[in-house]
Amino acid sequence: MSVEAWTYLLVGITFALYIYIGYASRVRETAGFYVAGRGVPAIANGAATAADWMSAASFISMAGLISSMGYDGAVYLMGWTGGYVLLALLLAPYLRKYGKYTVPDFIGDRYYSHAARAVAAIATIFISLTYVAGQMRGVGIVFSRFLQVDIATGVIIGVAVVAFFAVLGGMKGITWTQVAQYTVLIIAYLIPAIAIANVLTGNPIPQLAFTFSDLVSRLNQIQVDLGFTEYTKPFQGKPMIDILAITLALMVGTAGLPHVIIRFYTVPDVRSARYSAGWALLFIALLYTTAPALAAFARYNLITTLNGKTLEEVRQIDWVAKWEKTKLLAFVDKDGDGKITIAPGRAFVLKGGKPDFNTPDEKSRNEVYIDNDIIVLSTPEVARLAPWVIALVAAGGLAAALSTAAGLLLAMSSALSHDIYYRIFRPNATEAQRLLAGRIVILLAVILAGYFGINPPGFVAQVVAFAFGLAASSLFPVILLGIFDRRMNKEGAIAGMLVGLIFTAVMIGMMRAPQIFGAPAPVIKDLFGISAEGVGVVGMILNFIVAYLVSRATPPPPQEIQKLVDEIRVPKGAGAASEH
Amino acid sequence: MDGTKLEEYWKKNVGLIRNLLIVWALVSYVFGILLVEPLNGIRLGGLPLGFWFAQQGSIYVFVILIFYYAWRMDQLDREYHVHE
């Protein structure tokens, strides 16, 4: 069977599975819709959280990004895993004890204020919306790369599938499809990685092959010979302070992302919340410790396969010919010697962030353009795996994109239908009305996400920094203080959130002015060396300081709120509380 | 549970969190970033040690930290009779 036939078959089977699971877990009450009835076992919630967390970008692009960044790629590896330690130790157990459905729920109740609830709900919607558009786009891209379907059709198919299980099953449907999606995506990621580790080093375990073979030493030597710096040499693209700030911003941002936090409302008790954070990170770590190994293997393989060879020679290799056709790989013979030279710098001039294949960049001797996505996409072919493995990678990429999209859509629609509609405007709404509102809003959100997937606003890809920066500078500090500082009051929390939010938004806006507003140049390049990706950390620190000062200058929170804080600090009673 | 017992339970919990977060910061920010260059002078298998912490080791330690915390809190919850 051809790769294409296998791809249709595997994508078809997995989609049918997701739809079946969605149908089997359809719900009739709001607790099922928003928190899966709080009946999800710790290990299943761990797998669901891992799928929720790992997006199309983690699956398809991260290894390639690390491959081109070398050491500096560690910001993503540490940043997108270390946040789970903060979640497990500082937030998840207490939020689970508190119960309820959403992040704004906690913030609104703890700070006895609809203003705080509204700010948190708006932050939740904004964070999730910037993130979800990219996911729907990811679905379209996977379809177009593997099945030659155009991106819009791919997005529409993705929208239809997500809409089915999210509208019908809410959090319950999403949870169990995410468990299935995690299984698909991790198998799809590991099989090619194991195969290429075995081919290049003779050791099939990527993490061990990466650490204990001499492959990275050889890669370092090759890089130096070609005029690059060593692959493992730190701070080549970013200064140390920026690496520190970005890592911390991604960690804290992860812990403050609403779609991740709400997953911990679905487990039966506080103990399960702690363990499921551990399972989640273990499942995530399987991919995140494999990615840097894959990055180094693929870089080694690409350089040794291409450098110094003639164009006719390399074009006889199947995967080179295939990916050259899709423009993920491109050659230009600048010196006219008929041979390929790999060197630092760009092969082609960038135009609007994309390489312009008609204009070679004469400042560099480099003759090869390698798209980051090729690292993961080409691995099965490089390792000469069967066609069904290539098809599995397509199914895995779709699983990663759909699972993350579903989680984000639920976070966004619960902020709107639960926090804003029910808690603020219609506290007398019946159970049936609330459930209907939830379903309508999630359907609208899916359609909106699909629209943005087909017509991506130019800035979306550029401002993922926004999602993390805003989560780090607004939600994380006030949730943390709400648990650990009994004296924190609504004045402090609202002032802190607003300062953190506004500061970070303004900073990112100024640093990314060309991408967001189309300005000719950034208003400021960085803040003491900290770039847009890391500036949320400064916003977070300001949030903490302002919240502390304002709360100490204003009256303490009412007695019953201080009692609530004491209550969420002990695990006992979480199961009973969820009955209400 | 009375107030002083609760305070005691909470203090022990916060102490444990503090210790684990010190380890968390040590493996990532100190070994993986601040001291990465001197540590790269040492090798672990085929990798420089600082690089290993940044791209592998810190992640393993994060996983262990969470399970250790969950396990220690099981004991603490039982000791203070606040478990479910």
Task: Please outline what is shown here.
The complex is a heterodimer of chains A (580) and B (84). With 580 residues, chain A is mostly helical.
What percent of residues of chain A are in strands?
under 5%
- Domains of chain B, number: 1
* Number of helical segments with 4 or more residues of chain B: 3
Annotation field: number of helices of chain A: 24
Radius of gyration of chain A: 24 Å
- How far do the termini of chain B sit from each other? 14 Å
Structural class of chain B: mainly alpha
The largest pleated sheet of chain B is described as:
2 strands, antiparallel
Instruction: Name the CATH class of the largest domain in chain A.
Output: Mainly Alpha
**Global shape of chain B:** elongated
Mean pLDDT of chain B: 95
Fraction of helical residues of chain B:
over 70%
Total strand segments of chain B: 2
Describe the structure.
Chain A has 24 helices and 4 strands. Chain A has 580 residues and is mainly alpha-helical. A two-stranded antiparallel sheet of chain A has the order 1-4. A two-stranded antiparallel sheet of chain A has the order 2-3. In chain A, strand 2 and strand 3 form a beta hairpin. In chain A, helix 1 runs parallel beside helix 17 and helix 7 runs antiparallel to helix 17. Chain A is globular and about 80 Å long. In chain B, strands 1-2 form a two-stranded antiparallel sheet. Chain B is built from 3 helices and 2 strands. Classes of the chains: A mainly alpha (580), B mainly alpha (84). Chains A and B meet through helix 5, helix 9, helix 10, helix 11 and helix 13 of A and helix 1, strand 2 and helix 3 of B.
